[in-house]
Specification:
Length: 166
């Protein structure tokens, strides 16, 4: 019985501490009604575009596939993914790589007013490479690339959330 009371006091102190420091859940992107529907203009990777669309739809943002109907345009461009060698082994073979993902984006109104100026996202992940398990390492690289794309989507959404606050 006494342990339960201590537990409740601990939980109460934890909650009080979190709220006192300003902690709050991230919430969803809120695009004002007069800026909807939103058009995503992207020559970017299908994974990035799909995740961006899904996240915006889940947040209740109305999307359109026709730029002429859009009241706001989110442009995603200059997407580039590449890898570099970080270290080389004894037999002059790559032992470690760095996977790099870059993209630029901005949000504008059709008449050209900039809501979010051109911004760049640069993400990096490094991983070891063993030529004896090539298939597994190729899968690891693919997973890292997908993870970076998902992180880029979350970065764009976070920026929209704070830039479009009323």
């Amino acid at each position: 019985m006494q342990h339960r009371g201590i537990f409740y006091i601990f939980v109460l102190l934890l909650i009080t501490g979190l709220t006192a420091c300003g902690f709050q859940l991230r919430g969803q992107v809120k695009v004002p009604g007069h800026m909807q529907p939103l058009y995503i203009q992207s020559g970017a990777n299908a994974i990035l575009t799909r995740e961006l669309r899904n996240s915006l739809l889940e947040a209740g943002v109305q999307l359109t596939d026709n730029v002429d109907q859009a009241k706001t345009v989110l442009r995603v461009y200059r997407e580039e993914m590449y890898r570099r060698i970080l270290s080389v082994g004894n037999q002059a073979t790559a032992r470690q790589y760095e996977s790099v993902y870059e993209l630029s984006y901005k949000m504008i109104l059709p008449k050209g007013k900039v809501l979010i100026p051109e911004s760049q996202i640069l993400l990096r992940r490094d991983y070891s490479f063993d030529e004896k398990i090539t298939l597994g390492k190729e899968r690891e690289e693919h997973n890292l690339q997908q993870e970076m794309q998902l992180q880029a989507v979350q970065t764009i959404l976070r920026r929209m959330r704070y830039s479009l606050k009323p």
